[in-house]
Amino acid sequence: MEIAVRKAGSATVVSVKGRIDAVTAAEFEKNLAALMAGGDYTLVLDFSGLDYISSAGLRSILATAKQLKAKDGKMLFAALQGSVKDVFKISGFGSIFKIYETEEEALRQI
Amino acid sequence: MAQIPAHIRLPARIDSLNPLLAFVRSCAERQGLGQERLQEIDLVMEEILVNIFNYAYPDLPGEVEVACRPADDGRLLVEVADAGVPYNILSREDPDLKAGIEERSIGGLGVFFVKQLVRDIHYRREDDRNILTLQIDSEPRP
Lengths: 110, 142
Hints:
The complex is a heterodimer.
Chain A: E1 2-8, E2 11-20, H1 25-37, E3 42-53, H2 55-70, E4 74-78, H3 82-91, H4 93-96, E5 98-100, H5 103-108
Helix pairs in contact in A: 1-2
Chain B: E1 6-11, H1 17-30, H2 35-55, E2 63-70, E3 76-82, H3 109-117, E4 120-126, E5 129-136
Helix pairs in contact in B: 1-2, 2-3
């Protein structure tokens, strides 16, 4: 898993590549927690390079989303691919989170 | 031609995850399963194995054994066994998929994925072992 972070106006774009699984989920969550601790409360998760996510990854997303909500922040998702898209669909995450086809589209909603 | 069952036995802990996944993936590849189905099987196996790593051996370290072989009908047969506390993951209740962010709890989601992606899955307790048998179709979930 590789994580790249950049600012885009008031939002923070987090691009994740590779796999978020039971091995890497803790590191993924730690990165998001560090952003929140630094005052970044509007996160756009760019999943265009993400090949795989399991329930461990969804657990990290949900834990982060709950904390963001408490701070009036939000988390948007962009560019879900193949199996990641399916996992969001099966889990119901596709209907509790805002998901956009592209990062640009997600940023326009902020 | 007779098929010899292949199996692997490793400590039931997180650093065994990738070798175990690679083992099942190689079985599935030999069976000629497509990329999409291979990813689904990866997910199914991760969820089952992580459950075992987390709950099967609360006190002492233990092992997990995975075996696979082609079934007669073109499906892939995968068996996962541990000698831990009796636990049938299939008895786990499905999560509430409609709950919002605040109400949503994540428990049970992994097992729910397993049930969604593999139609034929059976649990039995035999010789003090939990044995989960999966008959995996070659086609991805519709």
